[in-house]
Amino acid sequence: MRTRAIVVAAGLALATALAGCTSDGTISMFSSSYGSKKDSGYQLPSIPISKVPRKYHRQTVRYDTKEKPGTIIVDTNEKFLYLVMPEGKAMRYGIGVGREGFEWKGTARVAMKREWPTWTPPSEMIGRQPELAKWRGGMPPGLMNPLGARALYLFNKNGDTGYRLHGTPEWNSIGQAMSSGCIRLINQDIIDLYERAENGAKVIVL
């Protein structure tokens, strides 16, 4: 009887130890964080997160890297963005990336952060999509603005790269390659990243 009690106790201890980290490295999930919320006067709609593959839900994961905490690492192949945290962890977000011909990689830094930014399509984009010419002077912030609720502006040694980490109202584009090169996140996720990331943060796009 004593032996059985020891075995049961050991099993419970092991289960408790494993409860915080699954076999895929997930420590905690934030699938309940995609509800409707009011933000700076805008009412963000809820996201039907059950329709988004689970791997793209915001989650804390085990992540092995030599980069210091606060670094942002974008894995365009896997469609993940990692914000490096202490003790071998990272906050992982699902992302949408540039479609074929618009991919990019390299190292940059977060030079500016903006809440509910104005979107100004570059002249090259207007050339491809003339209907965007009406926004040549800038599209006002709002729920349908392509930059979403937040934008982090990426610069390198040559100045503005033209690329952004930004929100999007198109939640179903997460996990897809369909942007013009920028990295897009669900609005609720870009708000979370915006609060965690610092100006000057290193950004590595793989």
Automatic annotation (TrEMBL):
InterPro entries: LD-transpeptidase, LD_TPept_cat_dom, Transpep_catalytic_dom. PROSITE patterns: LD_TPASE, PROKAR_LIPOPROTEIN. One of its GO terms (biological process) is peptidoglycan-protein cross-linking. One of its GO terms (molecular function) is glycosyltransferase activity. The keyword Repressor does not apply. Residues 70-206 form the L,D-TPase catalytic domain. Residues 1-19 form the signal peptide. Pathway: Cell wall biogenesis; peptidoglycan biosynthesis. Keywords: Cell shape, Cell wall biogenesis/degradation, Glycosyltransferase, Hydrolase, Peptidoglycan synthesis, Signal, Transferase. GO terms for cellular component: extracellular region. The active site is at residues 166, 182. Pfam families: YkuD. Belongs to the YkuD family. This is L,D-TPase catalytic domain-containing protein. It comes from Aquibium oceanicum.
